[in-house]
Amino acid sequence: MIKRIGKYTVKFLDEPLISSFASVVGKLESEGPLKEGFDKIIYDSHASKNTFEEAESYLQQEALSLALSKWGGKAEDIDFVFAGDLLNQCTASSFGLKGFNIPYLGQYGACSTSAQNLIVAAIFVESKAAKTAATVTSSHFCSAERQFRFPLEYGGVRTPTAQKTVTGAAAFMVESAENPAKSSKSPLLCPKISAATAGKIVDLGVKDANNMGAAMAPAAADTLKTFFDDTGKLPSDYDMIFTGDLGEVGSDLLYELLGSAGYDIRNNHKDCGLMIYDMNSQDVHAGGSGCGCGACTLSAHILPKLSKSEYKKVLYMATGALLSSTSGTQGQTIPSVAHLIELKCPKG
Q1: Residues 14 and 139 in one domain
Q2: Domain that holds residue 137
Q3: Which residue positions in the chain have pLDDT lower than 70?
Q4: In this structure, are strands 164-165 and 168-175 parallel, antiparallel, or unpaired?
């Protein structure tokens, strides 16, 4: 059952489980602080494929295959797969997942796609439209640079506000607590999706494609404020509040915007873009970004800690800049969106 809370938030009364998760990342990501949490490392940016775009599709294939293996089932046991990426028409997802023969619903929320996927999957499971749903999300530094900024061969100098698009993919299995039949995990070990807030499109006029944090922070602030206003909860009610990829610039702006709305998250906020890389030793400028940034951090760090009850209750909010290669060259601003899910430990 799903219950509406406030204006834009839904509460999952049966609390769907995330019963399996896996992540696959590139070489630079494997050298960061979360290296022990990733399931597979691809050291070749081409992944032995002809193009970076094909390599990104391969990341999705491997992530879903690993999640299925850990789950203990097969592709035919999945009712739907929700997947998305940053490429035009989500081609990394469609080309990467076509061989699984699973009913496919492509999703696009830019870097907010991982949370959007999980919200839709949870609604399908909670409403009994699916017993089990899978979600997959990816990004690749080289394919993203070619599409949104400059091909690597151009040799352009990145500005201090620029963020490094994460090369990585993560997959998640979402199912009802009443139906973890295929899962090798006990339901008692699976984190729960307990609530969600879908964000509104927010645009404060930022045009710089090398400053994603500034473009996305207003959307993040709006969604968090909406969630707190809808539920009556406070930042202190959570062990941690994770944002997807605001980086240094966006995180500071988020604190300022939320502070003016009466909410202070400085003491229990972490940004996945500042967690996945070592900001002191790895040259990633303002932090990490991309669909794979939040998704891989969710798989490698957040969910394992929830599974072990090291975190009791957290918020995970992925943020996305809704620009395209066309809109940028036409001088358009960068609208953004942020989607949020509330996650609880198995005993929560």
Answers
A1: yes
A2: 2-175
A3: 146-160, 179-188
A4: unpaired
